[in-house]
């Protein structure tokens, strides 16, 4: 971006006013914040989320240009889900207000599991399969939702014990 500042440039010829100062602005890249190529006042960030957290929902701290804020990750969030932090982007140069910050969820699938975690996930898979048969119309049953909550709460408890 180039800014022009009239009357602040080099001295003009004798009896003439000073020229216009041209200021060239360039913004470097950042490892955490990525500017949106279509809307330069918007920024994008990635947020790692544990598999159980994405399934159950969680509130996490997220870094913004102004510091840390709490972000609610809704239950059932999928990998690549994009969450909006309105007004947490870059200030607009011409005009008022700020852009937005978009947080992209990166769901982390564990590479290794304890025996109990494997057992819980196998139980979850079996219940999920039997739940699909019982709800062939495609609607979610409250029994299935309760099973998911119970299984992931048990898994979460075991993950905490391992730490």
Question: How are the SSEs ordered, and which strands pair?
Answer:
Blueprint: E1 2-5, E2 21-24, E3 34-35, E4 43-50, H1 51-56, E5 58-64, E6 67-73, E7 82-85, E8 101-108, H2 115-134, H3 142-162
Parallel strand pairs: 4-8
Antiparallel strand pairs: 1-2, 3-4, 5-6, 7-8
Helix pairs in contact: 2-3
Determine the structural class based on helices, strands and strand pairing. Answer: alpha+beta
Report the biggest beta sheet as strand number plus sense, adding barrel if it closes: 4 strands, mixed
CATH superfamily of the largest domain: Urease metallochaperone UreE, N-terminal domain
Compute the CA-based radius of gyration. 26 Å
Q: Based on the coordinates given, report the CATH architecture of the largest domain.
A: Sandwich
- Mean pLDDT level: 84
* Count of strand segments: 8
Shape: rod-shaped
Low-confidence stretches: none
Indicate the CATH topology of the largest domain: HSP40/DNAj peptide-binding domain
Tell me the domain tally.
3
Instruction: Please identify the top-level CATH class of the largest domain.
Output: Mainly Beta
Helix content: 25-40%
Order of helices and strands: EEEEHEEEEHH
Counting H and I runs of at least 4 residues, what is the number of helices?
Answer: 3
How far is the N terminus from the C terminus?
A: 49 Å
Strand arrangement across the biggest beta sheet = 3-4-8-7
Beta fraction:
25-35%
């Amino acid at each position: 971006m180039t800014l022009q500042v009239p009357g602040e440039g080099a001295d003009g010829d004798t009896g003439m006013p000073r020229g216009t100062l041209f200021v060239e602005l360039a913004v470097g890249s950042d490892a955490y914040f990525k500017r949106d190529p279509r809307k330069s006042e918007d920024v994008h960030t990635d947020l790692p989320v544990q598999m159980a957290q994405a399934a159950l929902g969680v509130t996490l701290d997220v870094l913004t240009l102004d510091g840390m804020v709490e972000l609610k990750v809704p239950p059932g969030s999928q990998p690549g889900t994009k969450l909006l932090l309105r007004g947490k982007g870059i200030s607009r140069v011409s005009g008022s207000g700020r852009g937005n910050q978009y947080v992209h969820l990166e769901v982390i699938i564990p590479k290794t599991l304890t025996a109990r975690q494997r057992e819980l996930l196998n139980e979850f898979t079996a219940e999920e399969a039997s739940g699909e048969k019982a709800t062939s119309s495609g609607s979610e049953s409250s029994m299935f939702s309760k099973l998911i909550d119970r299984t992931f709460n048990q898994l979460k408890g075991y993950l905490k014990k391992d730490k």
